[in-house]
Amino acid sequence: MQLSPIQLLEANFEHISVAPSKSDWPKKTQKAEFSMEINFEFGIAVIREDNDEFEYLLQIKYKTVADKRSSHPYSVDAELSGRVRVTRFAETQTPLNIKATAAVTGCSMLYGSLREMVALISGRCARGAWLLPTMTFAEIGRDIERDGKIEAAAALSESKPARARPKAKKIASKQ
Fold it and tell me: Contact at 8 Å (CB) between 58 and 81?
């Protein structure tokens, strides 16, 4: 066993709200519809990029909206931030690959903290403990790599160096 090359150095809740949803609770049937809108926003900013060590500030905003037909007892509104350090673990990794890896893994770690906090808070409520659904953040990594390649190509055509900028990602999905 060894330390991971990706470390979550800080995780902070800027805001969290867990409140009873508008759904009928408890459900009268065993089989309930799984219907919940998830709004997710993501941002990443470079703190430091060296040859072998990279550090980023991540921010996620997560909000659920459960309708009357859903089986979800709570609505969640949260904002978290965290600092992630990535040590280069392969010679072939580019700074863009490392940034994408930091975003995907960092979001997974922050979301894990959110799931834990929602379970803890909801466990003290009348409707009982609730665990948020598991999510994947691979699409964020693909978007960062694609956008970075587009920015680099545009910078080359303009003869200007490419600069990293914070990105925002909003995902709305029915599950």
Answer: yes
Q: Are 68 and 92 in contact (CB under 8 A)?
A: no
Residue 102 three-state SS: helix
Boundaries of every domain in the chain: 6-174
Per the listing, tokens 């975003």 go with 103
Which pTM does this prediction carry?
A: 0.82
Q: What is the DSSP letter of 118?
A: H
SS (H, E, C) 129-144: CCCCCCCCCHHHHHHH
> Which tens digit of pLDDT belongs to each residue from 93-142?
899 999 999 999 999 999 999 999 999 999 999 889 999 989 999 999 99
Fold of 6-174: Bacterial Protein-export protein SecB (3.10.420)
Euclidean distance between CA atoms 145 and 28, whole angstroms = 47
State the residue for tokens 């995780």.
Answer: 11
Q: What is the pLDDT of residues 48-73, one digit of tens each?
A: 998 889 999 999 999 987 777 777 88
E-strand spans in 88-124? none
